[in-house]
Write a structure and sequence with these properties.
Layout lengths: L4 E5 L4 H12 L3 E6 L2 H15 L4 E5 L5 H14 L5 E4 L20 H22 L5 E7 L24 H22 L6 E7 L14 H11 L5 H13 L10 E2 L5 E2 L3 H4 L1 H12 L4
Parallel strand pairs: 1-2, 1-4, 2-3, 4-5, 5-6, 6-7
Antiparallel strand pairs: 7-8
Helix pairs in contact: 1-2, 1-7, 3-4, 4-5, 5-9
Keywords: Oxidoreductase
GO molecular function: oxidoreductase activity
InterPro entries: NAD(P)-bd_dom_sf, SDR_fam
């Protein structure tokens, strides 16, 4: 994998950081997209030290801001002549949030960060992916969707302007939309050498210190949940598998679990008319 280039958003913590380490160890030039540069610099130093790689760098990007995404894409074009792997790992899931918050563009933050941002970033670097011998786009969903088999993307109100907002509802809706985006993207790119696949992330041990404002009850719940969770390092192995495995050179439009096995998403998410409707609505956000 020497000289391969991967951009992974949200690569300064959790699964993203572990995936960056593994890909750097595999010989990739790894570019980690980070919103906070000071935290990014700290993570960059740690990733380089652990991976023993000098080919790791930062890219400043706030996935909730369309201007930031476009600016980051322009920066990437100045640094790289191609892109081999794009991993949409960054996500907004602030469990302490009580009400919807808006991005700088006036879009509900979870929807903007987890769904609209990845679409815009993909569009903005697609030319670089096409220059790869075999470009790969990897999106990230959640095993939590299994608990919501009847969930649908609200085409009229994806931002919870006229219905009750909760972080889990907003988060799972955004991840459902990303699954559907993956299927749509795979079909759209079928005549290219680019593949698009999605990972269903299982329960992963969380650093509860990242959420200082949550209640003691929630802290206890997360502590209990962690007993039945895998490590970020273990989950990152699936990211690495999808990014590197030659077995997947021509595999596209698939949904993978933490054991690198293909699984099915909900019937709603696989329906072409539903996919087209969600994407028609989603693309309006980026003009």
């Amino acid at each position: 994998m020497k000289n391969k280039i991967c951009l992974i958003t949200g690569g300064n913590s959790g699964i993203g950081k572990q995936a960056a380490i593994q890909l750097a160890q595999a010989g990739f030039r790894v570019i980690i997209g980070v919103r906070n540069l000071s935290r990014g610099e700290k993570a960059l130093s740690e990733i380089k030290e652990i991976s023993k790689s000098s080919t790791v760098e930062l890219l400043n990007v706030d996935m909730s801001s369309q201007q930031s995404v476009v600016s980051a894409a322009k920066d990437l074009h100045l640094r790289a002549d191609r892109l081999d792997v794009l991993i949409h790992n960054a996500a907004d899931f602030d469990i302490a949030r009580k009400q919807a918050e808006q991005s700088i563009d006036g879009v509900e933050s979870i929807w903007a960060t987890n769904h609209i941002g990845p679409i815009l970033l993909t569009n903005s670097v697609l030319d670089l992916l096409k220059k790869s011998d075999q470009g790969r786009i990897i999106t990230i969903a959640s095993q939590g969707l299994v608990m919501h088999p009847k969930m649908e993307v609200d085409l009229d109100d994806p931002e919870f302007k006229h219905r009750k907002f909760t972080v889990p509802k907003a988060y799972y809706q955004s991840k459902l939309a990303q699954v559907m985006y993956t299927y749509w993207l795979s079909e759209s790119l079928k005549d290219t050498a680019i593949t698009a696949n999605c990972i269903r992330v299982t329960n992963v041990k969380v650093d509860i210190n990242r959420y200082p404002d949550i209640s003691r009850i929630m802290k206890f719940a997360y502590s209990l949940k962690s007993r039945f969770s895998i490590s970020a390092e273990e989950m990152a192995k699936t990211y690495t598998y999808l990014a590197t495995s030659p077995e997947l050179n021509k595999v596209s439009g698939k949904y993978f679990n933490e054991k690198n096995k293909m699984v099915k998403s909900s019937a709603y998410s696989m329906d072409k008319s539903n996919i087209d409707a969600v994407m028609e609505m989603s693309l309006k956000y980026i003009g």
